C-alpha cells in the first residue's frame, strides 16, 4: 500500500475507533501527525468541552489572577518566586511541591494579594481560599481526595481535574470584569501553563462548546510531550523493534493503556509511520486512588496510640513478627489493615527482613480457615511456570500425569496465594498472571475451558520493581495490579531497638528447639551484635545466634563465638586482652550474683580499678 492509501485507511478506521472509546494517532516518518481521532484528542487534551468561552489575548497590568496549584513547580510551567512577584507575592516560604492558592492583581505593587500555601503531605481535607477581593467573590480550592482544583469567580466554577499535578489559573479582566482566560485540559501542549501565562505568553480563544485544534500535518511534539513513550515511537520510526502492547504509558502527564504499531511497505518492509493506540485506564486509576486514599488515611491518623484506638488493632496481632520499634509497629499495623480487606498486597524489603512471615500473618489474621499457598517464584523453571501456576489437563504434554494436575491458583481458591520473589516471573507468564488478576479466570495448560478462581494475591520482592518496570523486565500494568497496597519492611539496621528483642527471642527458641540449657549473651557479645549492620537482616542474625548457641558450652555466650564484626577478628593484642578482661569481669559478676564487692575481692582488684573497668566495658 502507498503511504496515502494507508493514511486514508487509518482515517476510516479512526472514526470507528471513536465509537468504541479508542484513541488513535498516526505519525509519519517526518514525525508529523497525519491522523488523530477525536478520542485521542479528548484523552490528551488537544480537544475539550468548555462550557464558557473567552477570546484570545494576553494577561495585562491590572488583571485579577486567581491560582489553585496543587504542586508548585510541577505541571504549571515551572512556577517560581519571580512569577509570583508579578502578583505582589514576595514570600520565601513558598517552596516546590506546596499547594498554593492565591489571588492578586497583575503587576500592581500597591494592592495586597491574598494567598495561602500548605505542604502537600499533611493534607486530608480540601484546602480553600475564600475572599471577597476587589468586589469579586473568589474561591480557590484544591481537593486532593477527589483530585480536583476549582476556581470560582462570582459563583461560576472553573474545575480542572488532575492525576498527579496541575496549576489552575483564571484571569479576570481588570478593565471590564469579565473572565479573560481560564485554564483547561491540554494547557501544556498549548503553552498555556500557569507560569507561561504570568510571563505574558499569549493564549488562544476557547469556544463555547467544543474547542479543537487541527493537528493534521503538524509536528507530533507540538501536541504530545517528550516522554519515554514518545522516544519509543520515534525509535520505532527508525526501524528499531519496539514492543509496546497494552502497557501503561504516560501521555501529556496522564497514564493510558498504549500500543505502538508500525505501518510498513509490504515489499521492502520500509517503515511509513507509527500508530499509537490509546485506551483510558479508569479502573486502574480507581485502584491507585484507593491505595493513595488508604495511605493518606494512615498518614493522617497521628501517633501510634491514637492509631491503635481508632483502628482497633488487636493486641496479639502479627505476633510472629518480632519488634517494637516504631517502624516495626507501623509494619505490623499495615499488615493488620491488609488482613482486613482483600486488596492485592505487595510486601517489599531486603532479603531476610521477614516478608514471608508477614504474608503468612496477613492471611492468618484475615481468613485463617481458607487455604494459603506459598509459591517461591525463583525456584520454578521458566518452562514449568504456567503448569505450576495454572495446572494442566491429562495428556497436556509429554510426561504430564494422565489425570492432570491442579495449579497453585486452583489450590488457593477461596484463600490466598503468596507469590514470593514475584520479580522473577518471566514476562510471558506476567501477561497471563495479569489476565488472571483482572478476570479471575484461569486456563489450564492443554485446555481452553475457563476455570473461575477467587484468590487474594500477596506478592513479595526484594527487587526494586519500579526500576524493573523502567528496564522493561516487569510489566507496568501488572505492577499496578499487585501494588494496590504496599508494605515496606525496613531493614534491621534502621530499627536497632528491635535487635535486643530479636536476639533474646531467637536464642530462647534455639535453646528450646535443640534441648540446650537456657543461655544468655555476655554484654560484649551484645555490643558486637548491636554494632554490626546485619546486611542479611534477621536471617543472618538467626544464623549467627544459632551457631553461637551450639558452639558455646557455658551458659554465657561470649563474643568469641560470634561469627560477625569485631567478634571474629580482634585487631590488636590490646583489644584481645581487653576483651578477655571484660569476659572475666562479667563471668565473675554472674558467679557472684551481681555482688560487686564480692567480685572485686575475688578478682583481687582495687576499688578504683575495678569500677574503672566496669565503666570501660559497660558493665556498671
Ligand atoms: N520480625 C521478625 N520476627 C521474627 N523472625 C523474623 C522476623 N523477620 C524475619 N524473621 C526470621 O528471619 C528469617 C527470614 O525471614 P523471611 O523468610 O520471612 O524473610 P524474607 O524477607 O521473606 O526473605 P527473602 O527475601 O530472602 O525471601 C525467617 O526464619 C524468619 O523467621
From TrEMBL:
The coiled-coil segments of this chain are 277-308
Q: Which domain of life is it from?
A: Bacteria
Q: Which GO terms describe its biological process?
A: regulation of DNA-templated transcription
Q: What is this protein called?
A: Sigma-54-dependent Fis family transcriptional regulator
Q: Which SUPFAM superfamilies match?
A: Homeodomain-like, P-loop containing nucleoside triphosphate hydrolases
Query: What GO terms are given for molecular function?
Result: ATP binding; sequence-specific DNA binding
**Looking at the keywords, is Nucleotide-binding present?**
yes
The protein's matches in InterPro entries, at most eight in alphabetical order, are given as:
AAA+_ATPase, AAA_lid_NorR, Homeodomain-like_sf, HTH_Fis, P-loop_NTPase, Sigma_54_int, Sigma_54_int_dom_ATP-bd_2, Sigma_54_int_dom_CS
Q: Which organism is it from?
A: Hornefia butyriciproducens
Task: Write out the entry's keywords from A to Z.
Answer: ATP-binding, Coiled coil, DNA-binding, Nucleotide-binding, Transcription, Transcription regulation
Sigma-54 factor interaction domain segment(s):
321-550
Amino acid at each position: 500500500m502507498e503511504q496515502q492509501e494507508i493514511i486514508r485507511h487509518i482515517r476510516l478506521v479512526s472514526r470507528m475507533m471513536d465509537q468504541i472509546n479508542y484513541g488513535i494517532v498516526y505519525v509519519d516518518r517526518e514525525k508529523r501527525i497525519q491522523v488523530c481521532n477525536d478520542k485521542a484528542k479528548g484523552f490528551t487534551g488537544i480537544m475539550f468541552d468548555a462550557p464558557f468561552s473567552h477570546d484570545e489575548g494576553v494577561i495585562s497590568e491590572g488583571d485579577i489572577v486567581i491560582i489553585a496549584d496543587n504542586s508548585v513547580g510541577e505541571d504549571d510551567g515551572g512556577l517560581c518566586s519571580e512569577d509570583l512577584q508579578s502578583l505582589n507575592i514576595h514570600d520565601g516560604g513558598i517552596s516546590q511541591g506546596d499547594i498554593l492558592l492565591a489571588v492578586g492583581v497583575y503587576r500592581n505593587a500597591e494592592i495586597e494579594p491574598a494567598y495561602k500555601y500548605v505542604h502537600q503531605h499533611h493534607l486530608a481535607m480540601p484546602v480553600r481560599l475564600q475572599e471577597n477581593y476587589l468586589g469579586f467573590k473568589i474561591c480557590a480550592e484544591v481537593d486532593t481526595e477527589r483530585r480536583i482544583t476549582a476556581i470560582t469567580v462570582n459563583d461560576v466554577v472553573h474545575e480542572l481535574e488532575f492525576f498527579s499535578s496541575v496549576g489552575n489559573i483564571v484571569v479576570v479582566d481588570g478593565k471590564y470584569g469579565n473572565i479573560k482566560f481560564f485554564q483547561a485540559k491540554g494547557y501544556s501542549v498549548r503553552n498555556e501553563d500557569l507560569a507561561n501565562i504570568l510571563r505574558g505568553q499569549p493564549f488562544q480563544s476557547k469556544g463555547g462548546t467544543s474547542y479543537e485544534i487541527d493537528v493534521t500535518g503538524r509536528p507530533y511534539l507540538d501536541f504530545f510531550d517528550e516522554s519515554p513513550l514518545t522516544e519509543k515511537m520515534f525509535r520505532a520510526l527508525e526501524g528499531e523493534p519496539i514492543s509496546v502492547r497494552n502497557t501503561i504509558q504516560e501521555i501529556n502527564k496522564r497514564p493510558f493503556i498504549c500500543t505502538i504499531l508500525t505501518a510498513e511497505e509490504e515489499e521492502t518492509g520500509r517503515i511509513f509511520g507509527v500508530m499509537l493506540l490509546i485506551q483510558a485506564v479508569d479502573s486502574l486509576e480507581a485502584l491507585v486512588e484507593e491505595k493513595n486514599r488508604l495511605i493518606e488515611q494512615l498518614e493522617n491518623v497521628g501517633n501510634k496510640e491514637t492509631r491503635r484506638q481508632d483502628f482497633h488493632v488487636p493486641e496479639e496481632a502479627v505476633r510472629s513478627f518480632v519488634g517494637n520499634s516504631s517502624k516495626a509497629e507501623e509494619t505490623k499495623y499495615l499488615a493488620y489493615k491488609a488482613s482486613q480487606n482483600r486488596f492485592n498486597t505487595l510486601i517489599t524489603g531486603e532479603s531476610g527482613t521477614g516478608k514471608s512471615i508477614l504474608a503468612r500473618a496477613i492471611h492468618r489474621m484475615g481468613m485463617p480457615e481458607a487455604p494459603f499457598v506459598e509459591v517461591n517464584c525463583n525456584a520454578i523453571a521458566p518452562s514449568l511456570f504456567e503448569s505450576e501456576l495454572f495446572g494442566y489437563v491429562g495428556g497436556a504434554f509429554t510426561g504430564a500425569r494422565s489425570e492432570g494436575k491442579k495449579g497453585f491458583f486452583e489450590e488457593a481458591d477461596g484463600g490466598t496465594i503468596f507469590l514470593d520473589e514475584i520479580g522473577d516471573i518471566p514476562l510471558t507468564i506476567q501477561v497471563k498472571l495479569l489476565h488472571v488478576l483482572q478476570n479471575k479466570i484461569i486456563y489450564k495448560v492443554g485446555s481452553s475451558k475457563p476455570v473461575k478462581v477467587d484468590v487474594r494475591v500477596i506478592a513479595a520482592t526484594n527487587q526494586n520493581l519500579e526500576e524493573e518496570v523502567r528496564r522493561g523486565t516487569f510489566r507496568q500494568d501488572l505492577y499496578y495490579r499487585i501494588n494496590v497496597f504496599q508494605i515496606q519492611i525496613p531493614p534491621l539496621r534502621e530499627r536497632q531497638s528491635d535487635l535486643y528483642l530479636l536476639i533474646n527471642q531467637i536464642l530462647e527458641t534455639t535453646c528450646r528447639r535443640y534441648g540446650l540449657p537456657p543461655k544468655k549473651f555476655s554484654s560484649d557479645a551484645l555490643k558486637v551484635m548491636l554494632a554490626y549492620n546485619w546486611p542479611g537482616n534477621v536471617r543472618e542474625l538467626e544464623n549467627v545466634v544459632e551457631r553461637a548457641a551450639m558452639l558455646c558450652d557455658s551458659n554465657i555466650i561470649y563474643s568469641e563465638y560470634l561469627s560477625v564484626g569485631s567478634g571474629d577478628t580482634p585487631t590488636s593484642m590490646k583489644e584481645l586482652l581487653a576483651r578477655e578482661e571484660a569476659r572475666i569481669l562479667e563471668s565473675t559478676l554472674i558467679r557472684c550474683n551481681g555482688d560487686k564487692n564480692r567480685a572485686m575481692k575475688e578478682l583481687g582488684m582495687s576499688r578504683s580499678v575495678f569500677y574503672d573497668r566496669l565503666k570501660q566495658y559497660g558493665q556498671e
